[in-house]
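User: Hi! I'm working on a homework problem where we have to compare a predicted structure to a textbook description. Could you give me the structure for the chain below?
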Amino acid sequence: MRVKRYVVDSMPDALQKIRTDLGKDAVILNTKEIRTGGFLGLFGKKKIEVIAAMDATNSNSGTGAQQRVAPTQLQPQRVQPAINQIQPNTSQAHMSDFPDVPDVFASVVAAKEPAVAKVAIETPAMPAYAPQQSYSPVSVNAPNRAIQKDDHLIEELKQMKEMMRKLTQAADATKLPEPLQKIEQRLYDQEVDPLLVRQIIDETLADFELADESVTDESARQLVKAKLGQVFNSAANKQISPDTRVVHFVGPTGVGKTTTIAKLAAEQVLKFQRKVGFITSDTYRIAAIEQLKTYATILNVPLEVVFSPQDLSKAFHQLEDCDVIFMDTAGRNFRNEMYVSELNSLLKTQGNSETILVLSLTTKYRDMKAITNNFNRFKLDKVIFTKMDETDSYGAIVNVVHEFSLQLSYVTNGQSVPDDITELNEWQIIDLLLEEPSA
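Assistant: Happy to help. Predicted structure tokens:
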């Protein structure tokens, strides 16, 4: 057996050298990490020591006959080969490729006496190698398998690159013109329902393709503006109808129902010369009755307070000479079914009536949607939006009208009574939705 020692930087380097020196049938006996160079054991460079071997036959110089020695027992400290026959011949010096490791399979030279004997050969103890890494004997053909694996990986990368190229081409084919991209992003920023935005943009793009016209900033803006205008029902009357006898105001807490009632009452008294009466059932909020009573005193209108549905008939009788009655309901938790049922019993009135939902534009649309869906069981007729001066996001107006088909009525933009209220102009809202944000 031919044994050889290699000191290399990496295992692939060792495999290449072993294959070149010892052939493809060589096996690795042992590996371990060592450090070479440096000073006093410091700053040494990390290397790998590899012991490899290859089976070989040794020739006798005298007769040319080849004798194969089979080891019967191999131990780290002692080797005892059995010699069946020893022929007298001239010994030949055996040179090992690895002088530090004894060649335990060297040919044994016959003794001078031509006798067959069992000889126990004491050999120096083989240096014990304590490898930090243990490798099973591997074939030097391993680099071929590694190369095949690398080729397979490269092929997969090529396929992924081709797939990404096709996806990029498909994305470029469906890419929106830049003017429509700006409008789409602006509507998203205004919190308009993404499904509605996608529908409007797709219809606008289809119109441009049908007309075979180029998309410009102004033409895209005008066409999207027209699409948004179709969402609103601008033909219906936004004001309180002259035939309406009772107007119910419903909504969650803190949206400004009482202040809104005072503003509308001032409009009816001062602008339309109608006699107005107040009914309030808001007996839960502290000073709610006093607040409405103050407005009633200023406008010189009567006020009735009801504590239960049974008090309603008496209140209507007291206000029978009024042209229109505004009823202020308590702002309650719209998620509580008991409060909703209680409010529903207060809305059962005789004669022409309207139910107006009051919503704050500072409310998240997710909550606004839940509120509207809950109060919609009262047969809502119109919607009033408050606190427009406290936000710059108006997409919720479009969403509520589109999803619940409610008629827009008024919008408030301050706390001054009776000034800070006006009819909601949908085209003004659309302009606010599409205008570029200020820097």
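For your comparison, note the following. Residues 58-94, 98-136 have pLDDT under 50 and may be disordered. Residues 158 and 164 are 10 Å apart (CA to CA). Good luck with the assignment!
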